[in-house]
Design brief:
Layout lengths: L1 H16 L6 H14 L8 H7 L9 H32 L14 H13 L21 H12 L5 H16 L1 H15 L5 H10 L11 E4 L10 H20 L26 E4 L6 E4 L5 E6 L2 E6 L1 E2 L2 E2 L2 H13 L19 H11 L3 H12 L3 E4 L11 H14 L11 E5 L5 E5 L6 H19 L19 E2 L6 H19 L1 E8 L4 H6 L4 H17 L5 E6 L8 E5 L3 H11 L4 H23 L5 H14 L4 H8 L4 E5 L21 E3 L7 E8 L3 E9 L7 H20 L4 H4 L13
Parallel strand pairs: 4-8, 8-9, 13-15, 15-17
Antiparallel strand pairs: 1-10, 1-16, 2-3, 4-5, 5-11, 6-7, 9-10, 12-18, 13-14, 17-18
Helix pairs in contact: 2-4, 3-4, 4-5, 6-7, 8-21, 10-11, 10-15, 18-20, 18-23, 19-20, 21-22
């Protein structure tokens, strides 16, 4: 712990002076003293002024006083230079025009900007070094947001509906909107990010329904490979890899994430609450609790909870030692205590009953001690007694069951409140379930990529599938948690489980690897892979449901400090025009032209969302202000109640350097997924793996007769192939579609 504390102190000094270095003070001091030695005064009289006000002038010689004054001046000058450098870096990072420039056509401004950014960020940064240099998220002009909103809903409304919506919007813009905007701009002046705290509170923490399925999401293991079939060994390496990542986070040794292919940093604030964090329930709102450190993990197996110490006298246990400890838990034949087995269902059901139970029955005695151990643990581990993965006679069906298992399990064998729960299956397969309020999927994906790669390629296994490392024989046994669960709590556990089970049984998950082609072939058509997939999803939905719908694509705003997400409304006038033309039998040439416009439009919408010119977070914040002021806005009320029948998200592959797909082509990540957002809609997550594959995760609800995840999966595959056939049929494709406006990533490395 003292080692961690000293590392934190050292890091805060290094961060505090970035983009300069602590040693640069010496250069400034030597420079000032050298010029004074040459009978010159670089301070233009300031050193003399400082000397006159020094409290020590009685006890120092004249030369000593001059020396101290010069050092004080050097320090002040050095701090001023740091602030100036940081201000310059913030200004440079506020420039986003480079994202909108056509491929291969860089403006002169960007040509000057690139080397300046590189120069100011050339020092090796720590994980949080850029935080104070990141710009604040700007508040868009209200007329811009309203006009962009109207443009986004135009293809979804009839002429009379659009006229009514336009009247509502104009009325809002000219009256109440300006008043709300003034309050929002005031908030933006003092808040680090005008959206993030309200987003966390009102979208996540104040939600009173179950977080299982509705909010939490999952990440999967490798598709084709399970590094070992020994459950305890897989748990040993996975837990070790996660703790090695935590050590990197604590010591800030992780490289800051950047916009892919560029030197532009992304906000790292979400990493702070990755470990030792729990969402605790309240009657009105939940609270995120984070502890600085934790030397144990909480483990669940066959209805029993254990505390597993992962450090011994400050030393991280070896993977083999953790495997041995896990094996002890697996071999423990003791039965669950009364009410213990399904206790986790409290975290899966509605939030208010859980808050009431926690306050009444878990705030003292053995229950408080045991609950504290779970909540303070680095993370939660479930040793599942099922086998999962793409295996056996029904690999497709098993993949779907694997997704459902990670999303909700048995509804009581995960602790859904923990920042994340790791699941290790009986056959060695693994996965995780993550709580959503503390961070977004890319942060968890980064952690999970590192964990899978470290487990398989760095830690490795012996020939018989066990962990490597030595074992200290005197390790204490894992500690069973003790509970005293009265009948009232057991009754609530049963009703929470009934709520959660009904929710879980209703989820229709379908996971499928799309192997026909991947980003390699899409890029040969000079199209952004994300735009290609998004337009394919639009086409699939149109064929599946016979119309268009409001579509949500998650985009990040981590170019700004404490940025989270923004919505790309990817159903646009241009995408609808292309799909209508394709389905009504227009000429191939016309369809290709319209596709080109649609993909360019999508890329533009994505970039606008990333650079703070999105629609939905601004309108959401205006709505929150209206609630604070107690005023009703028919326009905002209608906008925020519109359902997202197609909710989509791309899982980014961020650390391709960890995976050697040439020599190990089977070590392909499956990515992860989430539950449907609308009762009559689809949730679609996808991950672009390597050059030749895209993995899709589709979810919907069985209770809706209009949706079917498998049917939609077939439509996605067909749409992808139909669009590729259209683009490939054009002999001029590689020439005709130049300038899709892809970011200048290669130029900015």
């Amino acid at each position: 712990c003292s080692d961690t504390a000293s590392t934190r102190r050292k890091n805060s000094l290094i961060k505090g002076v970035y983009p300069a270095s602590p040693s640069s003070w010496l250069f400034v001091a030597i420079g000032i003293l050298a010029t004074m030695y040459m009978q010159s005064d670089p301070s233009m009289g300031l050193i003399t002024k400082i000397q006159q006000h020094l409290p020590l002038h009685m006890s120092l010689s004249a030369q000593g006083q001059t020396m101290v004054s010069a050092l004080v001046f050097s320090t002040l000058l050095w701090l001023s230079l740091i602030l100036a450098l940081r201000f310059c870096l913030k200004l440079l990072l506020s420039y986003h025009q480079w994202m909108f420039e056509k491929h291969g056509r860089m403006s002169n401004t960007t040509k000057v900007w690139v080397p300046l950014v590189r120069l100011l960020s050339s020092r090796k940064p720590l994980l949080y070094s850029y935080q104070s240099s990141l710009p604040h998220l700007p508040v868009p002009a209200i007329q811009d947001t309203v006009s962009r909103y109207l443009e986004s809903v135009r293809p979804l409304l009839t002429d009379p509906e659009f006229k009514r919506m336009s009247d509502l919007a104009n009325e809002f813009e000219s009256n109440l909107g300006n008043r709300l905007q003034r309050y929002l701009k005031l908030k933006a002046l003092w808040a680090t990010n005008y959206v993030s705290d309200w987003w966390e509170e009102y979208v996540y923490l104040r939600s009173r329904g179950p977080i299982m399925v509705n909010s939490n999401y999952y990440g999967m293991d490798f598709l084709y490979v399970t590094p070992t079939s020994v459950q305890a060994a897989r748990a040993g390496n996975t837990i070790t890899a996660l703790l090695l990542y935590r050590r990197k986070v604590n010591r800030e040794e992780l490289k800051p994430s950047r916009v892919p292919g560029t030197v532009i940093p992304l906000c790292a604030a979400q990493c702070e609450r990755m470990f030792n964090t729990t969402r605790t329930p309240g009657v009105e709102t939940d609270v995120l609790q984070h502890w600085l450190d934790s030397e144990f993990v909480a483990v669940y197996h066959r209805g029993r909870y254990f505390r597993l110490w992962v450090y011994r006298a400050g030393r991280l246990l070896s993977p083999r030692e953790i495997e041995d400890q896990i094996q002890r838990i697996l071999d423990d034949a003791s039965p669950p205590l009364p009410g213990e087995e399904k206790l986790g269902a409290l975290t899966a059901g509605d939030r208010i009953p859980w808050a009431q139970m926690r306050k009444q029955y878990f705030s003292s005695g053995v229950n408080k001690r045991s609950l504290d151990i779970i909540e303070r643990a680095a993370f939660f581990v479930t040793l599942d007694d099922e086998e999962q993965g793409m295996r056996g006679d029904d690999p497709e069906g098993n993949l779907d069951r694997y997704a459902k298992s990670l999303l909700h399990g048995k509804c009581y064998d995960r602790w859904f409140d923990k920042s994340f729960s790791v699941v290790i299956y009986k056959n060695g397969k693994s996965g995780l379930n993550a709580e959503h309020s503390w961070a977004d999927a890319p942060t968890v994906a980064h952690l999970w990529e590192y964990t899978l790669a470290t487990d398989a390629f760095q830690l490795g296994y012996t020939e018989d599938g066990h962990c490597k490392g030595d074992v200290e024989p005197s390790l204490p046994q894992p500690q069973r948690l003790v509970w005293n669960i009265p009948a009232e709590v057991q009754a609530q556990v049963s009703s929470s489980l009934a709520v959660a089970q009904a929710l879980a049984d209703d989820v229709d998950c379908h996971v499928f690897p799309f192997r026909e082609f991947g980003k390699g072939r899409i890029k040969k058509c000079r199209v952004s892979p994300d735009a290609f997939i998004q337009i394919s999803l639009q086409l699939a939905y149109y064929r599946d449901r016979g119309g268009f719908c409001l579509t949500y694509e998650a985009s990040m705003t981590r170019l700004f400090r404490e940025g989270r997400t923004e919505t790309v409304r990817s159903c646009s006038n241009e995408s609808c025009a292309f799909i209508t033309a394709l389905e009504s039998g227009e000429t191939e040439e016309e369809c290709r032209r319209l596709f080109q416009l649609a993909s360019e439009r999508h890329q533009n919408l994505y970039r606008m969302a990333m650079t703070g010119a999105g629609i939905d977070r601004h309108l959401f914040c205006l709505y929150v202000v209206s609630k604070y002021l107690g005023v009703e806005s028919p326009f905002l009320k209608e906008v925020l109640s519109e359902p997202w029948r197609l909710s989509t998200s791309q899982t980014p592959v961020q650390q391709m350097n960890l995976f050697d797909l040439k020599n190990h082509p089977d070590f392909i990540s499956l990515g992860g997924g989430f539950g449907p957002v609308a009762d009559d809609g689809y949730g679609v997550s996808y991950i672009i793996v390597g050059e030749d594959m895209v993995n899709f995760h589709v979810s919907s609800k069985y209770s809706c007769s209009q949706t079917d995840s498998h049917r939609f999966g077939v439509q996605i595959s067909k749409a992808m192939q139909d669009i590729m056939a259209l683009l490939s049929a054009d002999p001029k494709t590689s020439l005709s579609s130049k300038g899709t406006g892809q970011p200048q990533s290669k130029k900015l490395q």
